């Protein structure tokens, strides 16, 4: 990802939903594991919820960050 801060999807605040912190943590775990299921589980949400967020109309940049995380080179 080109910046230190990933693009976040602006959502109404819900403590049990996709907070900015959860979105960042999800992308980090996704980058490390390449597993949507594991990344979603790591932030306490479901795989289905992750795909719903990705499909959100305001999530274009988040989807790009997701794709970049999946392509990030694995450490040797």
Describe the protein in words.
By secondary structure, this protein is mainly α. It has a domain at 20-71. 54% of the residues lie in helices and 0% in strands. Helix 1 (20-33) runs antiparallel to helix 2. The longest helix has 14 residues, at 20-33.
**Average pLDDT, all residues:** 87
Q: What structural category characterises the helix and strand content?
A: mainly alpha
**For the CA atoms, what is the radius of gyration?**
12 Å
How many distinct helices?
A: 4
* Strand element count: 0
What is the distance, rounded to the nearest whole angstrom, between the alpha carbons of the first and last residues? 19 Å
Question: How would you sum up the global shape?
Answer: globular
Element string (H = helix, E = strand): HHHH
Please bin the fraction of helical residues.
40-55%
List the uncertain runs. Answer: none
Beta-strand residue fraction: under 5%
- Profile the largest sheet: none
Q: Layout of helices and strands, plus pairs?
A:
Blueprint: H1 20-33, H2 36-42, H3 47-54, H4 60-71
Helix pairs in contact: 1-2, 1-4
Q: Which structural traits does this protein have?
A:
76 residues, single chain, 0% strand, globular, mainly alpha
Outline of the structure:
The chain has 76 residues and is mainly α.
């Amino acid at each position: 990802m080109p910046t230190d801060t990933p693009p976040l999807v602006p959502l109404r605040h819900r403590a049990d939903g996709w907070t900015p912190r959860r979105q960042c943590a999800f992308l980090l775990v996704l980058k490390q594991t390449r597993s949507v299921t594991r990344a979603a589980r790591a932030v306490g949400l479901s795989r289905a919820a992750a795909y719903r967020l990705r499909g959100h109309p305001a999530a274009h940049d988040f989807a790009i960050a997701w794709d970049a995380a999946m392509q990030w080179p694995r450490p040797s």
